Amino acid sequence: MLTSFLQSRLADFSKRYDYDTTYLQELAEADAGGLMKLALALGFTQHRFGLPAAVYFAAKVTATRHADCGSCVRLVVRMAEEAGVASSALIALLTGEGPTDPDMRFAADYARAVLTNDPALPEMVTKARAQWGERGMAGLAAATVSGMFYPLLKRGLGHGNACEPVIAMLRAETKGITHAAA
Fold it and tell me: Do 77 and 61 touch, CB atoms closer than 8 A?
């Protein structure tokens, strides 16, 4: 019964975000209790700790891209857009052009510093604490960790994939929005 419930929830998630949840469905089949425990982490991996959506998702998208899973990047981008982050800012982030918003740029730089153990990280932590407090600092750290969590789990379960054309998808969607508004 628990497995059926989990499979149903995963199917809903898959449909909502056009995201392949096969690796999680297989985990539900193998150990429904284990997947339930994983589901408890969902609240953490989606909690922004008071950070503005654009800042939180700049760090999370950067970390997810670093994990090199195209479908996971697409998922996080969709969630960012759902939270109100502009597609143009996400495109700039993913293409390396850098978002024009200095807070987003800082969050992306912070995530890269965490991921590479950059010597500048202590200074960035100090700056983040000064700007967003302890709670916001936790948000940046959580965004970075959660951006890596599912891609690594997916890869570890044998379902890793190469990056898909995320930037082209975003540009096409942005053009569609622009043309629809005209």
Answer: yes
Which of the residues in the chain have pLDDT under 50?
162, 178-182
> Domain locations in the chain?
1-40, 47-181
Residue 33: CB atoms within 10 A of its CB come to 10
In this predicted structure, what is the pLDDT of residue 167? 61
Q: Could you tell me if 134 and 141 are in contact, meaning their C-beta atoms sit under 8 angstroms apart?
A: no
| Residue 140: closest CA among 151, 149, 129, 154 | 129
Cα separation, 110 vs 28, whole angstroms = 34
Calpha distance 28→5 (Å, rounded): 10
> For 11-22, what is each residue's pLDDT tens digit?
999 999 999 999
